[in-house]
Recover the amino acids of this structure.
């Protein structure tokens, strides 16, 4: 089988539910047909790329997929999505002839990286990812590489990730997985990653680090990484003791782990949340706190910061409506870093705000007695370096 970039002009996505937001950036550049596994209609059966994100443990869905996709056309490429530790589903994907298995939840960068690996794989298979059955592909010599082309999209996605960004994302991945599956998290990964990020930000400008995160990650992971980078930059100013710097970086990595219990449809909802949905979201600080309290021995100061990171000094925050006297210095700093990260990232329901606009909003919050003035002043200093 062979494939070159010019063939990546169309993708068929087969999904359990409605269109996945992860497909939107891809769909803007590559014609992407979205099919519901419950109502499959795949008329074109030659040389296609199929992106399959269904419940591979459901025999009825697997049966429907087999009916639609088999016998397989010579140039078909099957990319399946499965949980990174969901071994039964990964085995099922391989049984169904997966060329690649990418991790759930899918994101646009992951998909783009897979596409570029399909484009760039040499005929001798040297660049074939280990452990994956891959097609033999030709290195592209022709095809559209102009800005905005599928190739450019994929190449952009494979711009080198800063190693500390990767280390931190692996730590976040592990902790989110552990909470979802009720496992004990590997805190060694978290502390190592926090040290790596702190070290990296002594040489890498904070804006470069944050931009690298935005290129390589999306959604809640992106948010946690941005908050961690901002927190590490905060520590670099020298305005807080070394021990507190490490605690702040760890707290930032962990602060939203409770979101692993919030359904993705709520986290990525574009419209205003209902009261019921809001209540679910507002549980995440306590859920994260309880999970970490039961499964780790991290210091109380970090646990408290995780539980209280949405509390505001005037008592208008959640979950408990604590006021200034009950909110620790570490929590106050984490809250400022968290809000700045949230304002400057793109979410399903809002665009990213420029740095200046985000800082103006934070200053308004200081004036209204909601967040700590000295924490904001230090944050501003940290963002200059
Ligand atoms: Fe949060
Ligand atoms: Fe957050």
């Amino acid at each position: 089988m062979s494939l070159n970039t010019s063939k990546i002009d169309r993708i068929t996505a087969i999904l359990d539910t409605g269109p996945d937001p992860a497909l939107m950036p891809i769909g803007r550049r590559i014609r992407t047909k979205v099919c519901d596994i419950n109502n499959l209609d795949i008329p074109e059966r030659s040389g296609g790329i199929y992106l399959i994100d269904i419940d591979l443990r459901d025999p009825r869905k697997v049966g429907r997929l087999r009916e639609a996709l088999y016998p397989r056309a010579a140039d078909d490429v099957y990319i399946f999505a499965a949980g990174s530790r969901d071994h039964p589903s990964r085995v099922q994907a391989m049984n169904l002839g997966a060329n690649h298995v990418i991790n759930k939840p899918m994101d646009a960068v992951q998909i783009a990286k897979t596409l570029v690996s399909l484009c760039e794989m040499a005929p001798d298979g040297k660049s074939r990812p280990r452990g994956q059955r891959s097609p033999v592909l030709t290195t592209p010599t022709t095809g559209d590489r102009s800005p905005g082309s599928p190739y450019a999209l994929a190449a952009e996605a494979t711009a080198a990730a800063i190693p500390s960004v990767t280390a931190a994302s692996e730590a976040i991945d592990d902790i989110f997985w552990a909470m979802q599956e009720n496992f004990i998290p590997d805190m060694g990964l978290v502390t190592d990653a926090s040290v790596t990020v702190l070290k990296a930000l002594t040489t890498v400008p904070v804006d470069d680090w944050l931009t690298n995160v935005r290129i390589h990650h999306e959604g809640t992971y992106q948010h946690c990484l941005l908050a961690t980078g901002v927190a590490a930059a905060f520590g670099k100013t020298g305005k807080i003791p070394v021990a507190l710097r490490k605690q702040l970086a760890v707290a930032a990595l962990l602060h939203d782990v409770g979101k692993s219990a919030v359904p993705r449809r709520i986290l990525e909802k574009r419209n205003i949340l209902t009261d019921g949905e809001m209540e679910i979201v507002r549980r995440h600080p306590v859920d994260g706190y309880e999970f970490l309290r039961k499964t780790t021995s991290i210091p109380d100061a970090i646990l408290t910061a995780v539980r209280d990171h949405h509390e505001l000094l005037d008592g208008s925050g959640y979950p408990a409506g604590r006021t200034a006297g009950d909110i620790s210095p570490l929590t106050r700093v984490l809250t400022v870093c968290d809000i700045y990260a949230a304002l400057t990232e793109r979410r399903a329901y809002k665009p990213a705000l420029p740095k200046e606009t985000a800082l103006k909003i934070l200053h308004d919050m200081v004036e209204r007695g909601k967040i700590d003035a000295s924490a904001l002043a230090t944050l501003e200093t940290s963002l200059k370096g």
Summary: The chain has two domains: 5-157, 163-384. Residues 255-256, 284, 309-310 surround fe (ii) ion (ligand 1) (CB under 6 Å). Residues 7 and 182 are 43 Å apart (CA to CA). Confidence is low (pLDDT under 50) at residues 1-6, 121-143.
